[in-house]
Write a structure and sequence with these properties.
This protein is of the alpha+beta class. Helix content is 34%, strand content 24%. The radius of gyration is 21 Å and the shape is globular.
């Protein structure tokens, strides 16, 4: 265990999340190279009276990973352990960044069925907070998990699946870091396929009127509404027989880098400096992106670069409430003095059976609001949150929200089951922090 000792004695530095709104100063940092070293680090932390939190790449906007105890960095817990082509699964070390996993799977002729729109997170970070993309039939990244390996608070190693420790498996797929530290995750995969993406501007009235049909007719549908305008940009992804026809190098750079990142960053900066200019900028921005169609392997279609740093809140509402809720957000923005420079994103997911999944037990729509980093966001987010709560909304576990355990206990039918499991697996709250105390209770 010499490597663990060296890692455990490392001088801790201040940790910050990607958005810069959360900082933590742990007592020490550990970078284990195996599940055994991680288990030893957990046991040592317990002996020293220190709490434990693993971090990924910091893409949560909440303090879910913050700790003043032992910060576990998963930088050495990366790579593919095993590919089982017969079972259609891949077992991956929990600290593996999704971008590296996607590239490695593509080399093997494999792919995840669905994924979110960025791939900077680690596998464990993405799944434990409920990261999702959009899908009519295919659900979140966590819903694609087939087995997990966890280090528990007593330092023991536990594996779980639908067949083994099924009660733990039901909860740990979106475990919030409250039940243990994931060391390996087995995901369902399939032979790599092609997706054709069709991006098309559409008016707000048309996309909301046709929302049910657009959802039903496409495997993956999402859209962005630009506040202060009646303009939306829609994206429909469907499986294709090919051939591959990716965006041209120049046209792809213009759309994904120049317009969606470079000029958008400038627009956000101007909007922060001159809020009165935001509506005019929004009208220009919403017309800048043109219709396009392209075909490529999944991760190149599902994901996009996100270089403009922002703050985000996202709520999951019953899918049948999505249009009403969005129209209420639009009306609220129009009658308020708010100046919103970032588009509102709408995605969907089918119902799943994960205990604390935002899509648990109901077909779901996600409404996400953003503002560029440095822009005051509380008034806007508070007003939107009020609307979402009125529609039975469940906040994304990794994004800004104000809900506590009392509200969440009413929003999740199996909330008490999760907290009882936590009581059994971590009675001393080795994995607790302020965020978990707020959302799960003591």
């Amino acid at each position: 265990m010499a490597s663990t000792s060296r890692a455990a004695s490392r001088t801790a530095s201040t940790w910050r999340n990607w958005a810069g709104n959360v900082t933590a100063r742990p007592a020490r940092e550990v970078t284990p190279a195996s599940a055994e070293e991680l288990a030893e680090a957990v046991r040592r932390a317990a002996q020293d009276g220190l709490r434990v939190k693993p971090v990924g790449t910091g893409h949560s906007f909440t303090a879910a990973a913050a700790t003043d105890g032992v910060l576990i960095r998963p930088d050495l817990l990366t790579g593919i352990r095993d590919i089982d082509r017969a079972a259609g699964t891949v077992t991956v070390e929990a600290g593996t960044p999704l971008k590296r996993l996607n590239v490695a799977l593509a080399r093997e002729g494999l792919s995840l069925t669905n994924m979110g729109d960025i791939m900077e997170q680690t596998v464990a970070g993405a799944t434990s907070t409920g990261t999702h993309g959009t899908g009519r039939d295919s659900a979140s990244t966590a819903a694609q998990i087939r087995a997990m390996e966890l280090v528990l608070a007593d330092g023991s190693l536990l594996t779980c699946s639908e067949e083994e420790n099924a009660g733990v498996f039901a909860a740990a797929r979106i475990g919030l870091g409250a039940l243990g530290v994931a060391t390996a995750i087995t995901l369902a995969v399939e032979p790599v396929f092609l997706l054709t993406a069709r991006e098309e501007p559409m008016t707000f009235d048309r996309v909301t009127a046709d929302f049910d049909a657009l959802h039903a007719e496409n495997e993956h549908f999402e859209f962005y509404w630009f506040p202060h305008t009646d303009n939306c940009n829609t994206k429909r992804n469907n499986r294709s027989a090919g051939p591959a026809a990716p965006p041209g190098r120049i046209s792809g750079w213009v759309e994904d880098e120049l317009l969606s990142n470079g000029l958008f960053q400038v627009a956000c900066s101007v909007g922060r400096a001159i809020p009165a200019a935001v509506p005019a900028i929004a009208k220009l921005s919403s017309r800048a992106l043109s219709a396009r169609t392209y075909t490529d392997i999944p991760y190149k279609v599902f994901t996009s670069p996100r270089r403009v740093r922002f703050m985000e809140m996202e709520y999951a509402v019953p899918r049948e409430a999505a249009v009403t809720a969005l129209r209420e957000v639009k009306a609220m923005v129009e009658r308020s003095p708010l100046r919103v420079s970032f588009p509102v994103e709408v995605r969907t997911a089918p119902a799943d059976d994960i205990t604390l999944s935002t899509a648990y037990g109901r077909d779901t729509a996600y409404i996400a609001v953003h503002l560029s980093r440095g822009t005051p966001y509380k008034a806007y987010f508070t007003a939107v949150e009020r609307i979402m709560i009125a529609h039975g909304g469940r906040p994304h576990w990794g994004k800004v929200h104000t809900r506590g355990s009392e509200y969440l206990a009413g929003a999740y039918p199996r909330f008490a089951e999760f907290t009882a499991l936590r009581d059994r697996l971590d009675p001393q709250r080795l994995f607790a922090n302020d965020y978990l105390r707020r959302v799960l209770g003591d």
